[in-house]
Design goal:
The complex is a heterotrimer of chains A (362), B (543) and C (278). Chain B has 543 residues and is mainly α. Among the domains of chain B are: 258 residues, Up-down Bundle (Cytochrome Bc1 Complex, Chain C), CATH 1.20.810.10; 42 residues, no CATH class. Helix content of chain B is 54%, strand content 6%. In chain C, helix 3 packs across helix 6, helix 5 packs across helix 9 and helix 7 packs across helix 10. Classes of the chains: A alpha+beta (362), B mainly alpha (543), C mainly alpha (278). The interface between A and B is large, with 112 and 124 residues.
Chain lengths: 362, 543, 278
């Protein structure tokens, strides 16, 4: 260690004998710095001991620390005694969090500024210069390390005994796979189990009844439930139909005006959805074909449906064609009719894939 | 008897000797204490990120004591009346309890969220400083890459954390994230299904995000931050050019005690600002969003600010769907480009930039001196271009809020964003480039002719000229001005920046080190070799 | 545990837990009666809404309606035409829109329109309450339509928890989670709910002003409307934010702005001071 320092020391400077009793403490500090190739070129007290300025600054720093103490105590007092339990309306409890934050913030800021003032104003200013030793690459060191590594490689003799290397690779590769297998194997999940990406809760079960359209509280929907120009979010009337387990199923049931409904029917016929509407009612998937947000901002005069996430706009009267924004696909339409009891049912599942697009969708 | 006498004052010394006997730490410790750090306000920006990270760890540990990472359905019966009786996930219910039924839980939750925003903001601001001053050049390319990775890992940390409360807003974000994964060609549906454990949302994603958010990602962040700091320590900090400063030295303060005190104080200040934000500004009021339900959404659904640029790019993307007519047909949805390809390009470009620039300039040297942005107009202009690009995207991520509050058409905002994304970056490049050249020109003029004094003099032939105060002594030029060389640092441009009339508050945007010798001058003499300078000492040792 | 059952149980628990609110039993009892009434009303409304409904003889107007007609002929006739049949390209027909629509548009100052634009803005009302009532009466007698119930407090007994759930599913997509409003396509917008009175919110749900969908009494019952109004007026407006200043409840966009304008700016100034020479 000392040789290293000796080596780095500039020419003509003898290291000081740090045990010399004549040296001041600062002399030793500076000698230590020099041994680390640091030269303290400027060191100047900002305030002289015993001056008015020193007393003033000391008071300032002490003041900051006392503010911290006060604020921290206030924090504790508020934490313990201030009413904190939520009550509706306007009340003292609404100031609990702001007061905690304010007292904690003041306490921390005061201790911070106290320390900063101490360091900035009371300690001597200094300018030190340290050598980087950049570029002065230790060429010998490089050679030695390089040769050592080559020597070790030679000793292992993989070059001379290639079987060792090959068998090691052959042995270790499966081990790496063993490490990865449980992770990959455990996580991987078949996306097309039960054809789940292409079906929704409205799929008519084998030999079963057609699925009713129900509201968020499970009640089935009658045509009279929706006024002209109104819209209702409906779900498949099955178990867990109104839950995130059927996140693809929420559907918007819209009651169009007469003229809009006629236009809409014409548009439906063009895409082969001629019998998807019932009367002036049309049902479209609420799940945006772009990124899956509920596209549910229905403008009843323009018949546009806006998705609030990325502003895709769908024209309901043109079979929910995307007319603006990043969505590239129509909202799938649910074929609906009214059953003998007067409730809306899905004639079948969606005939197109619901939800955001993916590679194998078509 | 004498041995029994206990000398309290000597105890620390004895203990220190005992420690050194065993571990031999005295010399390494001295090196650490002595390490010199240059001082400039812009070098503290990275510390803001570091200190916010510490606050994140502290507040985050508190939150884990009360948060339940489960998607089991429960019926809320906590004290927030407007949600009582609502079915929701256990994760959301426990987040509500954290906010309303845990004493001081809300302030901790809000501090955690503000600290996360501050962490990301400080990373970006620090990155801009490093970029515009050329601090990423050799030998610091590795640290630049680590820093860029920190942004993206922080991005993941933020997104997973934001999703944990399972409220209406974060669930919408999670839904979009699943759609983004779905959009990846070929593997999309497999990837999504594997991560969500089946069809969205499944029942496991919150637990997986939880372990990623509290263990895997913080572990990675911690490792990257340690490597980042270790490299700063090993390679020593860059410094601004200036009197006495060379590529081969560091001019500044030794770490102890003053520099360390300042750092400690600054940590407390950062912590204090986060506490004030956490208490005084409400963030992410999850109780208003309600539980996540696939059919519920709010207007102005946005991610946190550091994700907003991706939301913006998604909003601006035209509806270009690519159909591949093979077999049953395959599709690449428009969502894929702005959310998977664009970030991929950004990661690649940002991490590779140091190498691209070095290659372009054929620059193989090591650089420890920073550059003023005006001195490298091309890089500064490229940076301005990137910033303009990012800002247009981020603003577009909030374009519905802007449209609503400033009564602009939403469709017009989208078009403005699309056009702006094409026009703003080149415009920023051109303007910045010209600004840099103009500033350089002015610097040279001042060096050649001196500082404007504001004194108008009438010449014998009737012309009026402004008197300039030359920066150097007359050296035989006809007009009495000696021309100075530019040395890459601030040129005084006003009379009150010269001599005794220096600015009252120093350190604001220019070097805090007083020139050791004369002001900027050509071929400024380096600091005298050590050992020959006059004796200096601390106040105490002066006699 | 099935979520469906949980959900029902949740509703049940909510209702049982707050006996001050309507009991489940009463609700069930009333349900049948209401259903019949609703069906009749809907049928009636349907005939009124159906085209050709306005082709009825003009019955004599009552006193208030006559006053309303006088006001109408001065202030509204330009755009909505004689007998409120509408003017192509200027204003729609008001036959059958009902008193609710008039009350909403006139009492919130949206009508009379200041100028033609994407959507009418809220303004200080031009007409007094009395005049608004007269106008509403006139339109009501002209073609019928939905009417807002009597009284200024239409949230009596409303359950904020039930209202919150209804608000999130029906209202928040346009008016935002905090009721501050949001943008719609091409310059249209969902207005902030903050200046709206109980009656205006009720009238808006009933009549579906401008691009707002209609939420008739069959879809959202008067009791549910009271729940929603209670949630808007009590939770969203009166209930103070527990976490400090709410930054306008614009969501993450203002939070992002705040971290730069407050957090970063404050800390940059701190670092300027720290690194500055004393």
């Amino acid at each position: 260690m000392s040789t290293h320092t000796e080596h780095q020391a500039p020419q003509g400077r003898e290291p000081l004998d740090v045990n010399d009793p004549r040296l001041t403490r600062f002399d030793i500090v500076r000698e230590g710095a020099r041994r680390d190739d640091i030269e303290i070129v400027h060191y100047e007290p900002q305030v002289l001991p015993g001056t008015k300025a020193e007393r003033r600054l000391t008071r300032v720093v002490a003041g900051f620390f006392l503010i911290t103490g006060l604020a921290a105590t206030a924090f504790l007092a508020i934490y313990i005694w201030w009413p904190w339990q939520y009550a509706p309306g306007r009340g003292g409890d609404k100031f609990y969090t702001p007061l905690l934050g304010a007292t904690l913030g003041i306490a921390l800021l005061a201790v911070g500024f106290g320390i900063l003032t101490w360091g900035k104003k009371l300690l001597p200013k200094e300018v030190s210069i340290q050598d980087r030793h950049e570029g002065a690459v230790d060429a010998d060191g490089r050679t030695i390390t390089g040769q050592t590594m080559l020597y070790m490689a030679d000793e292992l003799g993989v070059k001379r005994r290639p079987l060792l290397g090959i068998s090691l690779l052959a042995g270790l590769a499966p081990v790496a796979a063993v490490a990865a297998a449980p992770l990959v194997g455990g996580l991987i999940s078949q996306p097309h189990k039960n054809n789940q990406m292409f079906t929704t809760g409205f799929a008519t079960p084998e030999g079963g009844q057609r699925i009713r359209l129900v509201r968020e509280d499970g009640r089935p929907v009658r045509p009279a439930d929706i006024s002209t120009g109104g819209q209702l979010t409906v779900f498949p009337g099955i178990e867990h139909g109104v839950s995130n387990r059927h996140a693809d199923s929420p559907t918007l049931l819209i009651h169009l005006r007469d003229s809009d409904a006629q236009e809409s029917r014409r548009a439906n016929e063009r895409v082969g959805h001629g019998d998807y509407m019932w009367g002036n009612y049309a049902a479209f998937s609420k799940i945006c074909t772009h990124a899956g947000c509920p596209a549910s901002l229905f403008e009843q005069q323009t018949n546009r449906l806006l998705c609030p996430c990325h502003q895709s706009q769908f024209l309901i009267t043109d079979n929910a064609r995307p007319v603006f924004g990043p969505a590239s696909r129509r909202l799938p339409q649910l074929p609906i009719e009214v059953d003998s009891e007067g409730f809306f049912v899905a004639k079948s599942d969606y005939t197109e894939t619901v939800g955001p697009d993916f590679w194998e969708r078509p | 008897m004498k041995r029994r006498k206990f000398d309290l004052a000597a105890t620390p010394g004895k203990a220190a000797v005992g420690v050194d006997d065993r571990f031999q730490v005295a010399t390494p410790l001295r090196r650490l204490l002595n390490k010199v750090f240059p001082d400039h306000w812009s070098f503290l920006l990275g510390e803001i990120a570091l200190f916010s990270f510490i606050v994140l760890l502290l507040t985050g540990v508190f939150l884990t004591f009360f948060y339940e990472p489960a998607m089991t359905e429960v019926v809320y019966d906590g004290s927030y009346a407007p949600l009582q009786g609502t079915p929701m996930s256990a994760a959301y219910a426990s987040s509500l309890d954290l906010s309303f039924d845990v004493r001081g839980g809300l302030v901790m939750r809000q501090m955690h969220h503000w600290a996360a925003l501050l962490f990301m903001a400080a990373i970006v601001v620090h990155m801009l400083r490093v970029f515009f001053t050329g601090a990423f050049r050799k030998p610091r390319e590795t640290n630049w890459i680590i820093g860029s990775l920190l942004f993206w890992v922080g991005f993941l940390a933020g997104f997973t954390g934001y999703s944990l409360p399972d409220d209406g807003l974060s669930g919408t974000g999670l839904r979009i994230a699943s759609a983004i994964m779905l959009s990846i060609p070929v593997i999309g549906s497999w990837l999504t299904s594997s991560i969500f454990g089946g069809e969205f949302p499944g029942t496991i994603i919150i637990s997986r995000f939880f372990i990623a958010h509290v263990l895997l990602i913080p572990g990675l962040l911690l490792a990257l931050i340690s490597a980042h700091l270790g490299l700063v320590f090993k390679q020593k900090h860059t410094q601004w050019p200036g009197p006495g400063r060379t590529n081969g030295n560091v001019v500044g303060e030794r770490m102890f005690p003053r520099y360390a005190l300042k750092q400690g104080g600054f940590f407390m200040v950062v912590f204090g600002v986060i506490a004030l934000l956490g208490g005084l500004f409400q963030i992410n009021p999850i109780w208003l969003f309600g539980p996540y339900e696939a059919w519920v959404v709010s207007a102005a659904s946005q991610p946190d600010w550091y994700v907003m640029f991706l939301d913006g790019s998604t909003r601006l993307m035209p509806a270009w769907q690519i159909n591949i007519p093979i077999g049953d047909g395959y599709v690449i949805p428009p969502l894929f480009w702005p959310t998977v390809v664009l970030p991929g390009i950004l990661v690649g470009l940002s991490t590779m930039y140091p190498f691209l620039e070095a290659r372009h300039l054929k620059d193989r040297k090591s650089h420890n001196l920073l550059q003023r942005p005006r001195d490298v107009p091309a890089r500064t202009a490229v940076g301005a271009m990137a910033v303009a690009f990012y800002i247009v995207l981020t603003l577009s991520g909030a374009n519905d809020v802007i449209a609503d509050k400033f009564q602009i058409s939403l469709n017009a905002m989208t078009w403005a964003g699309r056009v702006g994304l094409l026009i703003a970056p080149p415009l920023a490049y051109y303007i910045t480039y010209r600004l840099c050249l103009g500033l350089q020109q002015h610097d040279r003029e001042v060096l050649a002719h001196g500082v404007e004094t504001g004194i108008i003099r009438r010449l014998p032939d009737g012309r009026f000229v402004e008197v300039h105060q030359p920066l150097s002594a007359a050296n035989g030029h006809a007009d009495g001005h000696g021309e100075l060389d530019y040395v890459g640092w601030v040129v005084p441009k006003k009379m009150n920046r010269l001599g005794a009339l220096g600015p009252a508050v120093r350190g604001f945007f220019y070097p805090i080190e007083k020139p050791v010798e004369a002001p900027v001058s050509p071929g400024h003499p380096p600091v005298e070799p050590r050992g020959e300078r006059a004796e200096i000492g601390s106040g105490e040792t002066r006699h | 545990m099935t979520s469906d059952n949980d959900r029902r149980r949740g509703l049940l628990a909510r209702l049982r837990g707050r006996p001050a609110v309507r009991s489940r039993g009463r609700r069930r009892l009333g349900a049948a009666v209401r259903l019949i009434a609703a069906l009749m009303l809907a049928g009636g409304a349907y005939t009124v809404f159906a085209p050709g409904a306005q082709a009825q003889d003009n019955p004599p107007l009552t006193g208030a309606a006559a006053e309303g007609k006088a006001l109408f002929d001065v202030s509204c006739v330009t755009c909505h035409g004689r007998n409120a049949q509408g003017v192509e390209g200027r204003g729609p027909s008001l036959i059958g829109v009902g008193a609710a629509s008039v009350e909403f548009q006139v009492s919130s100052g949206r009508m009379p329109l200041a100028r033609q634009e994407a959507q009418a803005h809220r303004k200080p009302p031009v007409f007094t309450d009395e005049q608004t009532r007269q106008l509403a009466q006139y339109i009501q007698e002209l073609g019928g339509g939905p009417v807002v119930p009597e009284g200024d407090d239409l949230r009596d007994g409303g359950n904020v928890a039930a209202g919150g759930e209804l608000f999130r599913i029906n209202c928040s997509q346009c008016h935002a989670f905090g009721g501050g409003g949001g943008a719609l396509s091409s310059g249209k917008f969902a207005p902030s709910l903050h200046p709206a009175t109980d009656r205006q919110i009720y009238a808006a749900m009933l009549s579906g002003p401008q691009n707002m969908p209609v939420f008739g009494d069959n879809q959202i019952t008067p009791e549910q409307k009271a729940d929603i109004i209670a949630y808007i007026q009590e939770t969203l407006k009166t209930d103070q934010d527990p976490g400090g200043f709410n930054l306008g409840r614009y969501g993450p966009s203002t939070e992002g702005l705040a971290i730069f304008l407050v957090g970063i700016v404050a800390l940059v100034f701190a670092s300027l001071w720290i690194a500055g020479k004393s």
